[in-house]
Amino acid sequence: MASRRPPVRIPSLTGFMAMGLLLVALCFFGLPMVWLMLATSHTDAGLFTAPPLSWGSFANMGAAWENLSTYESAYLVRWATNSLIYSIGGVSLSLIAALPAGFILATQVFPGRRLILILTLIAMITPNAALVLPIYLQMSFLGLDNTRTAMVLATGFFPFGVYLAFIYFATALPREILNAARVDGAGPWRVFASVALPLARPAIALIAFFSFLANWSNYFLALVLLSDDRLHNLPLGLTALISGARALSFSAATGIPIRRPEAIMAALIIIVPVLLIFLFSQRYIRAGLLAGGEKG
What we know:
mainly alpha; MetI-like fold
C-alpha cells in the first residue's frame, strides 16, 4: 500500500502578509549593510561611478585598511584597545552590581525596596545626555577626569541591567529551589552564589550584551570625559579623524589619506564586533528576553 503524502499547507493571507513584511524589513535593513561591506572595495571616485552593490577589488580594500590603520602611528589600534578596556570593564562592573541588586530586590522584602525600584526605573528612562554633566562633575571631584578609570566607572552605571536582573529573578527563578536552599541553612548571599547565579546564564548574557552595546558605541560620555587623543575610544577617535580629514565632504583634500572608503571601513569596525557577539550569544539573549514571559 502506497504511503500517503502529508497534505500541502498553503500559507494563509496573514502568512503571506507576514512574509512580505519580513522581506521588506530584510531589504530595508540588510541592503545597507551589504552596501557597506562592498563599498570598501571601491576607490573614492569609484563609489560614484560603479553600479550599486558591485564589487571593486581586494587591492582597494587593502589600501583603505592600510590608510586607516597606519594613521598617526596606528592610532586605530590604540582606540580599539581603549574601546575593549572600557567595554569589558563596564560590562564587568555592570554584572557585579546588577545581578546581586536584582536578586535582592526580587527575593527580599525590606524597607525602601519600592523606592529603590522606582529610582531604578527613573534612572533607566533618563536620557544619557542628562547624566553626562553630573558624571563629569563627580569624576572631576575625584580627580579622575581624562582617565581610563573614569570611563570604566561611568560605564559601569547600568540601571537597565538591574531592572533586567530583577525581572529575571522575580519571574524565571523557581521558588522551590530557593526555599530548599534556605531550609538547608543557606543565607541570602549563599543562595545567590550557589543557586541563583548558576541558573541566571540567560540574564547574564542579556545584561552583558546590552551593556557591551551601550559601552562600545558610547560617544557623548567619552567626548566629555576624555580630552587626550590617546585615550579616545573607537567612536570618538574615528569621528574626530573623519571630521578632521573632511572625508565625507566634496571640498579639497586635507592631505590626510582618509576618504569615503576609509570612513565606511571605520563604520564597519564599530558595527561588526556587535554583530559577531550577537550571533554567537543569540541563544542566551533570546532565552533572557523570554525569561519573564511566564511565571515559574
